[in-house]
Design the sequence.
């Protein structure tokens, strides 16, 4: 069964509210881009390009979107500015659909009855622990048996924070002392999960980027040790990015995708920023599925990413 199907339909009103700051910023910029114009011409397209780049969609993705709109203008011969918003939405959704990796339906539970293992990576401060806690809450609410593993042993605070979430959600946690071998924690977590018949295992990892080689070696070791317990583990490597950091999120994605094989993305803190366009750019540029977006502080505000609903919320008046 697809994990996305476990959570039910995300609340559209929550998504709309979470993207308010980005939406307000985008519409103000769009209004300035088309002021005094009756049709989409080169000047409007130049202005639109600036709007998208300044909304953290990213240069490469912006250019691809502009090229698609130019093709529409050329084909239709005339396009009024009142149509621009609709065409913009259609072309962004079409662009994201071309990347098959953005289809969340591939996020499936194993059919062999073994636990589904999610290894979570990301720098400190991006909302990694909160994302793990909210995921645990969602899985448990869907009737799944969840085990957490505190393999970020570099910081005592990381272990403490994850333990607070485990208590809050009422799921078991496997931990050791600060400075312990992260791979050992992962091994113990998977062993417990396998023994107890758990459905989902979520492993936290250290968020250090100061030495990419050390990070790569550590994550590789964790993955190799987990395979001794469950040969298919990890089933998912989830990179958590802070959407409010805009272009810095791109850089973090670059660094982590070089350090390990990232198979899914979660982009957090979109409710507190006008940089929500970063989701479009990252989704397009890295060809890695954006599985979750954080649009608020409540448990329910970690939502499954739906490209059509996201683009509709971002660009609908």
Sequence:
């Amino acid at each position: 069964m697809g994990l996305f199907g476990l959570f039910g339909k995300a609340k559209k009103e929550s998504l709309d509210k979470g993207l308010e700051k980005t939406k307000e910023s985008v519409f103000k910029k769009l209004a300035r881009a088309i002021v005094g114009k009756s049709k989409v011409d080169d000047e409007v397209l130049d202005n639109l390009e600036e709007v998208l780049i300044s909304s953290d969609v990213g240069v490469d993705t912006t250019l691809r979107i502009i090229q698609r709109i130019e093709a529409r203008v050329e084909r239709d011969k005339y396009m009024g500015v009142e149509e621009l918003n609709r065409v913009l939405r259609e072309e962004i959704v079409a662009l994201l659909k071309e990347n098959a990796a953005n289809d969340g339906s591939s996020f499936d539970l194993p059919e062999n009855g073994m636990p589904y293992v999610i290894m979570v990576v990301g720098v400190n401060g991006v909302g990694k622990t909160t994302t793990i806690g909210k995921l645990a809450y969602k899985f448990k609410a869907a009737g799944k048996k969840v085990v957490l593993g505190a393999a970020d042993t570099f910081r005592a605070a990381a272990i403490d924070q994850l333990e607070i979430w485990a208590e809050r959600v009422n799921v078991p946690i496997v931990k050791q002392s600060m400075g312990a071998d992260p791979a050992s924690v992962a091994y113990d977590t998977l062993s417990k999960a396998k023994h107890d018949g758990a459905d989902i295992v979520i492993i936290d990892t250290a968020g250090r980027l100061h030495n990419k080689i050390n990070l790569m070696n550590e994550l590789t070791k964790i993955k190799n040790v987990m395979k001794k317990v469950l040969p298919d583990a990890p089933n998912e490597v989830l990179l958590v990015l802070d959407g409010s950091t805009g272009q810095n999120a791109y850089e973090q994605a670059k660094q982590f995708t070089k350090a390990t094989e990232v198979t899914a993305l979660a982009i957090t803190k979109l409710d507190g920023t006008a940089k929500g366009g970063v989701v479009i750019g990252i989704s397009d540029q890295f060809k890695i599925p954006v599985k979750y977006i954080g649009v608020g502080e409540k448990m329910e505000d970690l939502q499954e990413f739906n490209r059509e609903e996201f683009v509709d919320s971002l660009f609908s008046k």
Remarks:
- The longest strand covers residues 236-242.
- Residues 59-76 form the longest helix (18 residues).
- The mean pLDDT is 88.
